[in-house]
Amino acid sequence: MINKSGFFILLAALAFPGVDLFANTGSVSESGGEQNDEARSEKPGELATMQTKAEEQIENLTQPLYSPFVERYVLDEIKQLRIDHAQTRQELIQKVVDREHNAVDRAVTYATDTITYFFYLIAAASSILVLVGWTSIREMKERVHSLADEEISKLVSEYEKRLAAIEKQLQQKTRHIEANREEIELTNEIQALWLRAQQESAPSNKIKIYDEILKLRRDDCEALSYKADAVLELGEPQWASNLCHQALKIDGENSHAFYQLACAYSALNQVEDAIYYLKQAVRRRESYLEYIQDDPALQGLREHEAVKAILNNRKV
Topology of domain 218-311, per CATH? Predict the structure, then answer.
């Protein structure tokens, strides 16, 4: 485990990659105990300096040091989800098979008991006929056998229907599990594309990634609205407007699509339409109020009275 000093040294190494942390600390040799003592006496001052610089660098951080940790966490969670899904499927199949075996065992046991009871009845009837002196034992035996055959046929038919129903349910569960597996794979692929889009800085590369997402899921409203954002960065407000309208056809309450429409119409100098869609965006999500003052796409609207009213929360 890394102690506090080691942690700050590690952060100092990350913040100041060109600085040698162990410069002038002395060389270690098998017989150089005195040099080690001198190095240890000089080292605390340097470590304190490094720790102070690391603390100052940490205080001035504006973004995480390791963004790949998030991706690694998501991938681990997805992997665990796949493992849990496979275990659940295996347990479900095992339970269904055990239940089917138990049903067959009960059916066979019930049929055997029924035949045994019928034989007991036949023996009792035969004894009564012998005691009474009846001579139609053969006819009675044939009749009892026919009744037994009919009863067994009914039982077999009933359990065949039950087994068929169980098999049908198992097939439905299998199809459902397969559909869930395909949906999970699709979701994983789309999630990977979103992570790639977040790491890209060029708008053209982002548009290519959003197109790949839309190929996998055509009705992805978020992909359309974020593609419109990238298109605006390329200076294509009309294209961005069309993308936002497509997104609103899919989800009429998508606040991000309304905001991008406001930016697109602002770039097209259609002030009234831009203010209308900006109001719609703020009405659905008030956090857009923070973006209005800093977004360069809305620079031409900041001095408009309606926009000032929106910023002052007087009228939305």
Answer: 1.25.40
